[in-house]
Amino acid sequence: MSAWIFPTTADAGMRVYAPDFPSLLVEGALGIQAYLLAPAAEPFIQRRPRHSGEWRVRSKHSPHDHAMLFVTWLEEILYRNEVHQQWLTEAHVRVENNANGLEIVGQISWIDSTDIEREIEIKAVTTHELTVSEAASGEQVSGGHESVPDFLGPGWYANVVFDI
Fold first, then answer.
1. CATH number 3.40.50.11540 given to 3-163
2. What are the structural domain ranges in the chain?
3. Which of 53, 69, 95, 133 sees the fewest Cβ atoms within 10 Å?
């Protein structure tokens, strides 16, 4: 996984690195769920039957903005966990760009999350300190926090803060 959680004042942040934007979305989804998950729940997840389907996500507020699409995607992950009891286990995504904006089209494997023990609750994905950007080849991006490594481009990175 290429996602690291870091503390902020009364909240928690996550830095994500990936070779391309669709991979950044997948790493972000896996990172937010790893943060939510109680350690004892991991073996339980591995034994659950899988379901699959297509998830489509578009940012209504800024339909052409990669950063807002990233936030909307993470909000969708939380929503599906909490409302539909769908815990994402694997994702293959592509991002389509048309006149209506950017849209994530994901082939998703998920399990019923009714009995999954969570360590923490995330109230919201915020835009505080939000960064979603592409790093050029050879560009070094500072981790910004002691527990987060630096990143050397090319690739994409994101920084997002959760209200907990």
1. no
2. 3-163
3. 53
